[in-house]
Amino acid sequence: MTEAILLVGGQGTRLRPVTVNTPKPMVPAAGVPFLAHQIARAADAGVTHIVMATCYLAEVFEPYFGDGSDFGVHLEYVVEDEPLGTGGAIRNAAELLTGGADEPVLVFNGDILTGLDIRGLVDSHRAADADVSLHLVRVEDPRAFGLVPTDDEGRVLAFTEKPQTPEEIVTDQINAGCYVFRRSVIDSIPAGRPVSVERETFPGLLAAGAKLHGKTEDTYWLDLGKPESFVQASADLVRGVVDSPAVPGPRGEVLVLPGAQVADGAKVSGGTVVGAGARIESGAVVLGSIVLDGATIGPDTHVTASLIGAGAAVGARTVLDGAVIGDGALVGADNELRAGVRVWCEAELPPAAVRFSSDR
User: Fold this and answer.
1) To the nearest whole number, what is the mean pLDDT of the chain?
2) pTM of the model
3) Distance between CA 202 and CA 87 in Å, rounded?
């Protein structure tokens, strides 16, 4: 296996305001853009050529990753003028692939953190002589995902995208967003129009008698579409719950990047990242959070499972719990922001303006 397509064109609307200025795969997790973890893991698995399918804020990827040589891969970029969906993006990116018709092509989404054995997925694809292989995981509540039942040999039997009734929930196996395609199958996807692999390509292949193979692997898996999931993924990377060669430091309770300052008397733990040039003042308690570059956390604040945008400032004695603070926002002292509240980029929240309780 030498080639892969990386799908990074989505707008990341569920992560707003984090993605107002930054595409979701470029939002830092464990000290580097999340995409760096995926590229590093692919390189470790033997991938040497990656085509990146971009659309939203496409201009930010190449200046950071360049030709991929720092990661040990050859990177190329394809830009969609209009969103083409998952299948359309794969077909569009395939123009830069170099392998033959029967060669395997790894395809993965830019918003999934997983401990998947990539080599193992490709090996099982070859062993099954499959047209497409899918990584599957089991979840307790599959209603928000695409269900993929298989037989005892792993052959895919059906696809049910986001089931709505109890009768539709025939398995707890879901599409985990990583595939291996036979190159000729990619070439059969219609070009130049939006195509969904989940709703059009996979069901169509199954109806046509193609061999689709599912590999169920009970490993770490997390969809980073929501802020709370993104923050959790970053903390898990810092703590070593899931491995990545791209984490820029030793695994532990905190990752402090160069130029950051953590004052004496501050308590930082739970896989927190303190970004370059960020500052945590005395008396602050920061647990399992992301504090991006240049942000300031004031004295005696309590920050839990939150994401603080680049250059943002949080005033003294403020409580953040599951909050998202946009880039450059100013949150005044003595606020209490909980339960997924989002403060937009550059917004200014006066002192003691928002409370979730009548008193502390």
Assistant:
1) 93
2) 0.92
3) 9
